[in-house]
Amino acid sequence: MLGNNILIGAAGAAGADAGHIIEGSGLFDGSTGYLSRTPASNGDERQGTIEFIVKPSEFADTMLAYQARAGGAGTAFWVYITSSYQIRVMCENDGGTAIINHITTPVFRDPSAYYHIVVNFDGDTTGNGCVNIYVNGTQITDFGTRVNLSTATDLNLMNSTKPVTIGFQTGAASYLDGYLSRATYIDGQALDPIDFGSVTDNGFWQINKVEETFAITGANLSAQFETSQPATTSSEVTTHNWTSQDIGTASADRTVIVALGTWAGTASGTTLTSFTIDGVQMNYAGIQQMDITAPTVYIYYLNVPTGTSAAISATWAVKQHSSSIGIWTVDSLVEVHDSKGFGDGSSDSDAISLDLTVPAGGFIVGYHTDHATSTHSWTELTENFDEAMLSNRVHSGASKSYSAAATPTITVDPTGSAESAALVVAFRPVSEGWEFGNNGFLLEGGANVSIGNDTSEGAELTGTWESSAVSTANVSAGGTYTFSSQDIGTAASNRNIIVVASTGGGSAACDFAATCTVGGTSIPRIVDLEGVDNNDISVYQGVIASGTSADIVFTVSGNTMEKCGLAVHVLYGDKVSLNDTYTQAATTAAPSGAVDVVAGGVIIAANKIQGNGTARTTSWTNATEVYDQTIEVNSDPDTHSGTYTSYTSAATVTVTGTASGTTHRNSLVVMSFSTGNNFTKTGTITATSDSPTNDADNEYGNWATLDALYTPKLNFIGGSFYQGTNTYSEGNLRCAASAASGRGEIRSTISLATGHVYAEMKLNAIGNSAAGVGLISIENNVVTNHCVFARKSSSDTTTHMIDGGGDPSAGNDTGGDWTTGNSAGVAVDIDNNSVVIINPNTGGANSAFTPTSSMAGKNIMIVPVKDSHATNRTLDGTMNYGSGATAFVHASSIPTGANDRMVSYQQPTPAIINPEEHFHSVVVTHNGTSTASTCTFNLDTYEWLAIIKNTTGAAEKWYWIDSLRGVTKYISSDSTAASTTDANVMSVSGTTFTLGSTLGAKNYLVEFHKAGLASATASNEEGSLNTTETSANTVSGFAISTYTGTGSNATCGHGLTSAPEFIAIKDISTGSAGWINYHIGMGGTKFIKFDTAQAAQTLATVFQDTNPSATLITMGTANSINTNEKLHVSYAWHSVEGYSSFGSIEGNGNANGAFVNLGFAHGKFFAKGMDASSSWWGYDKQTSPNNPDLGAIWYDNTDPQQSAGRADRVFNGVKFRNANDPNSANTTIYGAWGGRAMTDGAINQGRADGIVPPYDQANGGTIKRVGDFWVHTFNSSGTFTAHEDMVADYLVIAGGGGGGGMRGGGGGAGGYRSSWNSEASGGGGSSETALNLTAGTDYTVTVGAGGAGGAYNNIGGTGNNSIFSSITSNGGGGGNGGSSSAIGGPGGSGGGTSNDFAGGLATTNQGNAGGRGFHDGCWGGGGGGGAGETGVSSNGTTGGGRGGNGVSSTITGSATVRGGGGGGGRHQTCVAGAGGTGGGGAGSNTGTGNAGTANTGGGGGAISYTSSFASQNGGAGGSGVVIIRYAIS
């Protein structure tokens, strides 16, 4: 599995939640491809969250998101990865000054792994909290540059009416080169990464589905107007105070809402630096501002629990005058739901209309001010005040409460004529969860979806064509075409009008204006096709909520226009937007273009034909025509035609409009629309199956690329060394190898060790080289064999096979040619040592070739190669591994069985999923006296090795302590000293270890290696020298032994099942005896010593020139390894795929250093040069959690952590970043352990390593943030660990009972117990009392399985109990079998029964009884009891009874019903009962009963009486669930 660059999140139990699957990615080409949209309206201008899942291929200012200034005004916003590999978030004001500039110190430069990046921002927060950056679930806290917001302000980030781009910065050559799998924006809330991912039980960061969790929890609100205060002075001031203002009746949840109107003074600026109630800063709700001398209005709010009057104070950055306020209160905590504003700088009296949404239970406050002596009239809202201010200024306020959700249009109409500003804000009760918001979007996947399509709404688009018309008038520039009383469909708040305008001809440069009006409302142009000879088409879109007909008016620009055509389409949906567009200017041929359309989307097409002497009609292909009209009849008649077509599934559709005869000019526009804030694709973005999530069935996964991290020193076997530079592009699938490179300089990121794999390479260009494609085999990072298919030379296209090295001209002639632009295929049957080449020119398969050296057991890569027998060799080739970026050229010639691919989902499941079960490291901040910490395994149950070293403070020795010798004894790797006894270094008890007073007040790195069970420790007698004690962990490949030396040649058993690859031995009795180390990279002929930096040494009396075997270590007579009658300790490791690795590499002495491909991201890594003096470099994830590394700790030295920046810990290994040790130009040995597995067969989440540390408060289950609460969901049994004392609410549901056999009763729901939010428990029971949990306690969580369905006439099985702490919910009762004389089974809820017997009994306050059966007429079994309702009895008329309904809970943030009872069975022609809401399985009319839904505790449905009932079972009950919720501290 060498080279797999995927980290796969792991669940502990088989069958665990496989996580969310992302269907591929878009490959951005780095030079032309990007996505863009311009929001139609502002969203929340203060808060938002943006998320990216991206695999960058190249790091030169890799742009993720950018929003430009509009016309040079407003803020500009960037999120990108710099050319120095740092994440940068920047916001500039309109003067070009950075008001936010965060540049991370950590670097992110792994080009073959996905990074999960979340950035949230808050314009109300100054200081560090204004922007937060998270990578793979972990917050970045270290910044090289950190400019924070100094004043609360509108940021306009991603949510104002300015162009937004993904993958490109307009005006700069900054593109994204790489794979973008998801981009998400949440408009209005600053979310944590827990809303986009979660931590599994094994500690992996798992990518989750992004979906709204919004739920309102409060009651209906009624806003109360309290008072208004007009301006009392026209003097210009920076602070204005209003004393003793009425704020209503005091209450704990009272919210005070204050509207403020003000006028700028002689200096420009309206920044409100503070707005307080009794000195407490209020929360921002909205602002609408004008230019200098014009008004600005604000609305703020604050929870004020005490007092009936208060002082209100406003302070601005520059002087204001004529400031006035209005005050409302509401007896509830509230938050902003929506806001809209409008400023009019003209001196007219036009009414201002604003559309916004308000939820059920919400209310709206409106405020207006203008420079006149006018009065106001409000529609929709109730006016609360309308008062004159000073200096001919007035202000007015209004409000209204809503019991039902609405989308009202608010209008305020001043009678006077002056500059004015209006602001309306909808408030709602405090909610939980989040929603996408006005400008939010979700762009996900690439393989089977339209790239750039927003799937956040997910609703099907409805609509129709409404009308078309023509005008034969000639209109000069500045004039208008008016189409009166055009049909615009049924009025609705989400009605989008699509207007298509076509020119009938005219003078040069005539055009339509950028907007048109519909019923007096201006809507913007979304498509502008400038056709030849004025065959122009303009398309406009806007929301028009009211009316069924309207006047549509176009303004002509540029020059006189002759004639005009109009078409009107109507689309109904939220966030309707243009998804894809094709335009073709004038052509005499039939215009044709393809667009992508999503499921539920609509394609609208329009053409304009200038006929050649005759008016032409249009015949459409792949589109439904809705109009075809003549605009003008003359020598070249003009016609326009259009289509409207709906799509139920995603497709790429080519639309063609064919004229009925010859034409002079044709123009065509094809548009796809869908719900959501869709982006337009520009340039090259290729849909691929490359994904951070694995799905083998659909071939989604992290696919192999060429490994840009690999910078080799040595060549293939038989080759010479010519180091050069490889340039990678096209998602790192293309490599242009420089002139100085030799053969074998290219590797892939993923390899296979078994299977029958296929790949292709296209030859793009070739210099003076023999070049081609080859397979290489690698062991311990060293190329051991290769097989190359190549051109004979740069001038001879004849192809040859070269096996094991050598000149291509001497290879076996394959009888074909290879010219540039063609692709060769390679099929490698690893297990049968066979290679088949698909000829690049003919496409035919050559005969199978057998490599001389067997491939069995080796890691195989397929890569571009070239010959190595001279300098100045060049190659340019592109690999195709099958990710979908390009289809296989020779798909029809792929040999049978060559179905494997170099992709993450084909990697084997490693033995160790969670390394914390075997290796644990932690940095402890010690107080110098006694500091306790926790290990991840029990230190009393298992034997162990602990290694302790200070990372701060003065120099200090190493402490190596193992449990075989005792916790009070240590040796040091930096010293030859004998074992020292000191009881004050460390003590252990269970999972707790405590650092003692021998250690100073410093930070210490403590690492634990788990050996075997303490109870299994015994002498090993396999060798000639018996050990005193040996303890071996055969899973992780680590063993500890103690033995007494003999001074004679000997063998000693190590206790492992494979040969050790790294051994550390110490004579612990002799003070002068140094360490002896064996390493597989040197072999048994050499040894090296921990306690010195010296090079490897040769001495036959150490290991007798013999490598360890699978059972024995061979020892000579040398002291330190076999000192006579002295006690020794031995620590031995061997590699375990995905967890540990030991080997050697050749350093290159270059800052772009050698790459150590481990196949995992290490927990601990060491490296040492063996050819010359070199320290032992040790890197731990805990001391260097990010790149660049924070520094190594030398095993042979007493210094603390030092020498930063020499190595990157990357996703699948280590990349050296320094020309010196441990990357100097010699052989370096290395070792690593504690690696995270890349796949486990259950949760397959492929991304860069980002293991989230334990949450501060608790761990266990799937963790999700909901508002100010953490929610842990256990869908299977596990452990909840409390890290602090807490009060936790719970919902505990047991497994549902199985449905009964023939004509039986439905299974009862599992017991239902809840303490959350006063919500009821089952059976009408009251909400229970929350639990007090204790810090440091592991609480076992048991999730009960559902009961089995009953066979034939038998009763269904009882569901299993679910348990959390002291709370036990009983399993649901099984449904009674049809011929049984017993009642339904008892349980949490009782099972239904049959044959006129009573239903099963329920547990009090957990559920309800089952329904009664009926044995007459239309027989049937009773429904199983539900948590919320008794099972419905059969009535002898319809058949089986319905299962009782469940109970709804909002504990997860959204209302979900669980605990439904199963439906009863029926007799012959009657009807089986339905399952109860909340997961109850329906009784079956034919076949096996339906199972209850998993993790709802739903009861299973019964089977019915049919001819085959004897071989069928009732449905199984659904499994239970345990959900725990507590407040974030």
H/I helix tally: 1
N→C terminal distance: 43 Å
Approximate helicity band: under 10%
Secondary structure tally: strands: 104
User: How is the biggest beta sheet arranged?
Assistant: 8 strands, antiparallel
Q: Supply Rg.
A: 37 Å
What structural category characterises the helix and strand content? mainly beta
Shape: globular
The percentage of residues in β strands lies in 35-45%
Mean pLDDT: 85
- Poorly predicted regions are 1-18, 714-722, 740-744, 1241-1245
Word description of this protein:
The protein is mainly beta and 1529 residues long. 0% of the residues lie in helices and 42% in strands. The strands form 24 sheets. Strands 1, 3, 8, 9, 10, 15, 36 and 54 form an 8-stranded antiparallel beta sheet that branches. A hairpin with a 2-residue loop joins strand 58 and strand 59 (782-791). It is globular, with a radius of gyration of 37 Å.
